[in-house]
Amino acid sequence: METWIIWLIIAVLLVIVEVLSQMMWTLCLAIGCLAGLLAAIFGFNITWQIVMVAVISVVAFTVVVPVLKRWHNTTSRRANRDDRTGMEALLGRHAVVTESIYPDRLGRVRIDGDSWQVSAPLRSGVIERGEEVVVTSYDSIILHVKRVRV
Questions:
Q1: Which CATH number is correct for 86-147, 2.40.110.10, 2.40.160.20, 3.30.70.580, 2.40.50.140?
Q2: Global pTM?
Q3: 58-114 confidence digits (pLDDT tens)
Q4: In terms of C-beta distances under 8 Å and separation of at least 24 residues, what long-range contacts does 22-31 make, across chains too?
């Protein structure tokens, strides 16, 4: 079997692994294998083919990875999406108090139609019904809030 066919098979397998695992280095190795394929086609011996694979793989890694990271960051910013889910998605959200929050008792707020038990810092005093608060943290299913300063 010709060595260029072997390099092609290895490159295709690495691309398949890349698609399934998204481990950027497999893509860089596949690019290196394509360089080995070209070296084989131009008649270089196996030693030079392996050197080409190694060198081009390292070059691909140093060039491709930063470019793809930059592209990913710009597309993520452009989409302006927030990947938080569950309780983490409530952090920083504003809510309206539906049941007054006393320093020693839990109160309630409404966020997106859901009623949540909340507590506030002792120094905040009583937070009356109808006031706006922001979620700062949570403990189990109890949200911790503070007043929104106007």
A1: 2.40.50.140
A2: 0.50
A3: 999 999 888 888 887 776 655 555 567 788 889 999 999 999 999 889 999 999 889
A4: 24/61, 24/64, 24/65, 24/68, 25/61, 27/60, 27/64, 28/57, 28/58, 28/60, 28/61, 28/64, 28/65, 29/53, 29/57, 31/56, 31/57, 31/60, 31/64
